[in-house]
Every structure is written in structure tokens, then in C-alpha cells.
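In this supplementary section we document a worked example of the pipeline. Step one takes a protein sequence of length 134 as its only input; no multiple sequence alignment statistics are reported here. Step two produces a three-dimensional model, which step three serialises into C-alpha cells for compact storage. The input and output of this example are shown verbatim.
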Amino acid sequence: MHFTGKVPHAALLNLLSLSSAHVYLTYPFVLSWSMLEAMACECLVIGSATAPVQEVIEHGRNGLLVDFFSSEELAGTVVRALETPAAMAPLRAAARETVVRRYDLRSVCLPQQLALVDAVAAGRMPEHRAAVPG
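The serialised model returned by step three reads:
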């Protein structure tokens, strides 16, 4: 377990790429970019089963979720993940695929942001786009 403090972004990406797991616990608030970065690096995310995390991670498909208040469940999940790295490989790959499909800057986020700016500039309501599943 490493608590790195502040590191340059490139070093963070290298660290996430080498990590066996990234524990991401957040109380219902705003999802941090760091969780998406971890997923994009195919790092196994073990996250809290809270609203912002559940918007992105589906337990057992692209990551693992635990009760925010259960340290026993968190510890057991981390141990199982570290003991069975081959079983976690599909989750890691699915995590990256989720981020690329739903949050890629060039193909998803930037076009949506530009469409929003264009709609507002033209005095139109922006088109509602359903969230991309999974």
C-alpha cells in the first residue's frame, strides 16, 4: 500500500498502470477524475457502492463495489482481488473499455461540449442525450 501524496500526472498514470488495485472510497458527492484515470489505465478499481461511483462501475463487470461503511468488506475484497489477479483481468479490460466508450475526450466529451456551446449560442435548448450504458 502506497500513499504517494501529490505526484506529477505522468507519474500517477505510470503508478496506476502498475497497481494491483485502486481503492476509491467517496461519500455521495462528485466523482473524481482519478477514478476514471485508474479505469483507463486498466487498474482494478475497488470503489464504494455510492451514487457517483455506481454511475460508472458495475460490480463484477468493470470493477468491484463495497459498502462505504464496511471496513471488513473492503479488506476482504482487496485481499481476494490480490489473491486472484487472473480473475480480475476481465474487469480491468472492461474498466478501460467503459472509460473510452463513455468519456473519451475527442470522440465523446469534446463533441458533446461543443454541441452544448453551439446550442446555447444559437438560443436553442441543447439536445438531451441519454447516458451511454456500462
